[in-house]
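// run 5 | inverse folding | seed 20
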């Protein structure tokens, strides 16, 4: 008896056809996604809903090569707030401002300014930031003064202590730390900014993001995603902090002040061990122009009892008799205007030149 043989020729002929159809569908879907993304990208740019450029921080290789925290050699027109456009220049060492030599010249008076976005200079031009304006005033008496802008937005003292360790390689003669009103609150965040910088560095240094990142960073979609992520992290941190305050406001406040105080003393001791002078400058918020807050008062008292050379800029703002709207970018934003930084620079230069300038500047 003959065993029947199944005819598979028809099925074999159909398989290539089904595969081709699936590939065409996949291709059409891919093209559709790309077109949709391009349309969204065009819309974001056209209606200025997100900037197409942003300042990039260092990747893993750059982190080992430069002391600053920004990718070297950038010049970006920052449009994160269309009503407050400004240009940012990042030098070859990863700091905001003009290039300077890594090796300090023999006669240079080198100053590193640490702080958050008040030091970095959100929404003002390069020559309007506090470090730049301070440098200009110092140079009236000391031609070789250099003020390095080591500001990092969203940071507080624990992050700035890490930044200091990197900046010590630049052989500063003086370090100025700028305290602002939200430094205590930022200590309550679940993750420090320095940890977030490290995660960002790792992610964009790994394949495949390491390959596509140079393209992505120049898109509005990417910068919108970064903004959304930052907003979420800030909201989560604020929620956690508010919950902590709700449980026991006095206990939380004491805890955050103690953390800041411990970090401040450690920073003072680190600089003393390296023979570097130290000044703590306290920049008042809008609400502190007329009357110091409890935190600002605590800071002044703590500095006085721990042998920390400190200057409160509140009296300089009060002496100017200017309104908050003339000193800060309200209502668009709460950061200082160039005029606010100018008053702060004048007061800070007077303190520094009066007690810490080298003999050649006096």
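// decoded
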């Amino acid at each position: 008896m003959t065993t029947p043989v199944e005819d598979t020729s028809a099925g074999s002929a159909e398989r290539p056809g089904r595969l081709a159809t699936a590939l065409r569908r996949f291709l059409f879907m891919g093209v559709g996604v790309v077109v949709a993304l391009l349309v969204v990208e065009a819309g974001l740019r056209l209606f200025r809903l997100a900037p197409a450029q942003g300042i990039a921080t260092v990747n893993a290789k750059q982190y080992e090569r430069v002391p600053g925290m920004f990718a070297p050699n950038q010049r970006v027109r920052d449009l994160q707030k269309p009503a407050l456009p400004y240009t940012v220049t990042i030098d070859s060492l990863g700091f905001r401002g003009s290039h300077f030599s890594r090796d300090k010249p023999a006669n240079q008076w080198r100053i590193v300014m640490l702080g958050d976005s008040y030091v970095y200079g959100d929404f003002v031009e390069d020559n309007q930031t506090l470090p730049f304006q301070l440098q200009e005033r110092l140079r009236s008496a000391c031609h070789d003064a250099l003020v390095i802008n080591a500001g990092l937005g969203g940071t507080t003292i624990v992050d700035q202590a890490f930044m200091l360790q990197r900046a010590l390689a630049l052989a500063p003669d003086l370090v100025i730390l700028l305290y602002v009103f939200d430094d205590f609150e930022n200590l309550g965040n679940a993750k420090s900014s320095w940890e977030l910088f490290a995660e960002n560095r790792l992610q964009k240094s790994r394949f495949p993001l390491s390959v596509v990142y140079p393209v992505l960073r120049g898109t509005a979609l990417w910068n919108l995603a970064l903004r959304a992520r930052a907003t979420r992290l800030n909201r989560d941190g604020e929620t956690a902090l508010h919950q902590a305050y709700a449980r026991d406001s006095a206990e939380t406040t004491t805890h955050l002040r103690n953390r800041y105080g411990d970090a401040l003393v450690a920073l003072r001791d680190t600089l003393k061990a390296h023979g570097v002078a130290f000044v703590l400058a306290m920049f008042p918020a809008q609400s502190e122009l007329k009357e110091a807050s409890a935190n600002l008062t605590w800071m002044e008292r703590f500095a006085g009892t721990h042998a920390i050379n400190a200057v409160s800029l509140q009296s300089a703002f009060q002496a100017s008799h200017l309104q908050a709207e003339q000193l800060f970018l309200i209502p668009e934003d709460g950061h200082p205007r160039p005029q606010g930084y100018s008053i702060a620079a004048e007061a800070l230069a007077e303190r520094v030149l009066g007690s810490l300038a080298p003999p050649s500047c006096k």
